[in-house]
Write a structure and sequence with these properties.
With about 100 residues, this protein is of the alpha+beta class. The chain is about 35% helix and about 15% strand.
């Protein structure tokens, strides 16, 4: 199992990659702060989720009927569970245990 690299190791590796890139003749261009990578930064961000018309749902009565019947079967089996007997300790007048009795509740 490999250890996850620490932040120091990641920074060192990134620095080495940048140095190799510069040694091969690569250039780094400084971008002024606040400049966006979008084509038109003055234009607002598009809202992807709410700009489409509401989709109509297709009713599927046979699937809903099957789900309802399964739900009713589960409700019936849950109510038909038998009570498990529980162990009850009988104490004497002084609080000392005398015996154990199984009681169905």
């Amino acid at each position: 199992m490999n250890k996850t690299p620490t932040k120091h190791q990641i920074r060192r590796e990134l620095q080495q990659q940048v140095e190799q890139f510069l040694e091969k003749g690569g250039e780094i261009h400084q971008i002024p702060r606040g400049v966006s990578g979008r084509d038109n930064p003055m234009e607002g961000l598009p809202t992807v989720f709410f700009n489409q018309p509401k989709a109509e749902r297709t009713p599927i009565p046979e699937v809903m009927a099957a789900l309802d019947s399964r739900r009713q079967k589960k409700a019936k089996t849950a109510s038909q569970r038998t009570a498990k007997p529980k162990e009850k300790i009988i104490y004497d007048d002084f609080g000392e245990p005398i015996r154990k009795v199984w009681v169905e509740e």
